[in-house]
Structures are given as C-alpha cells and as structure tokens.
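tool=predict chain=A
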Amino acid sequence: MKLTIENLKTLGAFTGRPVEREIEWQQGENTFKATVFIRPMGYQTATSDIMATVGKIDGIAGRIAASVCDEEGKPVFTIGDITGEADPDRGPLDGALTVALLLAIQDVNDLGKATSSPKKTNSGVS
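tool=predict ok
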C-alpha cells in the first residue's frame, strides 16, 4: 500500500471529530455534571506525551489539555490552566474534576482495555 492521505482516510488513520461525554464530579457537598468533548488520541496527544517524557511539560496536564476540546476540536484548556500556572489566584484544576476528565479520556480511547490472551494449552505432561 502506498502511504497517501486517501489511503489513510480509508484506513481510519485520522482521529476525526471529538466525542461527546457526560462527566460528574463532586466538590465538597456539591455534585456537578457537565458535557465535555474529548478528542481521540492523535497528533496533539502524541506530541504532549513526548514532551512529558523529556520533562518539558506535566504529562497528566498535557494529556487533558490535548484531549479536552470544544465541539469543533479547539482546546478548552492550556496546560497552565490545569496546573494553575496560568492564573495563580485561581489555582490548579480541582482534583475530582481532573479525575472525571481523565476517566472520560480513558473511555473515549479505550485505554487500559483488557485484551484476551491466548488460552494456555495443556501439554499432557504431568
């Protein structure tokens, strides 16, 4: 196969539109629900993961910033929004909200999905 844009489109090698998810998190006594859009892992996530590997950015904040977007796929957060560096008075993103976003990212990308391993066969030797 030749590596062309058309062949890659046919194979589904592009991430496509963001996926809508509902999230829920608790802050103190209050429970909140929100609709979020998650970009399936692609170029932005790979770039963020590489930068985290070499210590240039926070990996979790990078994953959230690369994945959470609006309906058109534009980022909602910067890494600084998540870590609190963008506005020290506001501080970092709430921990429970962070976990809810990570679970939505996991859900969209099937991260950690268990794959069935081949069944072991008995050799008949005791």
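The first strand starts at residue 19 and ends at 27. The two ends are 49 Å apart (CA to CA).
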